[in-house]
From TrEMBL:
<feature type="region of interest" description="Disordered">
    <location>
        <begin position="1"/>
        <end position="38"/>
    </location>
</feature>
<keyword id="KW-0687">Ribonucleoprotein</keyword>
<dbReference type="GO" id="GO:0005840">
    <property type="term" value="C:ribosome"/>
</dbReference>
<dbReference type="Pfam" id="PF17070">
    <property type="entry name" value="Thx"/>
</dbReference>
<protein>
    <submittedName>
        <fullName>30S ribosomal protein THX</fullName>
    </submittedName>
</protein>
<comment type="similarity">
    <text>Belongs to the bacterial ribosomal protein bTHX family.</text>
</comment>
<feature type="compositionally biased region" description="Basic residues">
    <location>
        <begin position="1"/>
        <end position="13"/>
    </location>
</feature>
<dbReference type="InterPro" id="IPR030826">
    <property type="entry name" value="Ribosomal_bTHX/bTHXc/bTHXm"/>
</dbReference>
<feature type="compositionally biased region" description="Basic and acidic residues">
    <location>
        <begin position="29"/>
        <end position="38"/>
    </location>
</feature>
<keyword id="KW-0689">Ribosomal protein</keyword>
<dbReference type="InterPro" id="IPR031414">
    <property type="entry name" value="Ribosomal_bTHX"/>
</dbReference>
<dbReference type="GO" id="GO:1990904">
    <property type="term" value="C:ribonucleoprotein complex"/>
</dbReference>
Length: 38
């Protein structure tokens, strides 16, 4: 397990892909979204 393993975070960084172990975007907190709208 390492850079060549597509199922690990390090492997996904190496391959440049996204998935369960490396989500494409982090979800913003509900409080941050509410502050920007107000």
């Amino acid at each position: 397990m390492g850079r060549g393993d597509k199922k690990t975070k390090k492997g996904k960084i190496f391959k440049g892909s996204f998935g369960k172990s490396r989500p494409a975007r982090r979800a913003k907190k509900a409080t941050d979204a509410a502050k920007k709208e107000a």
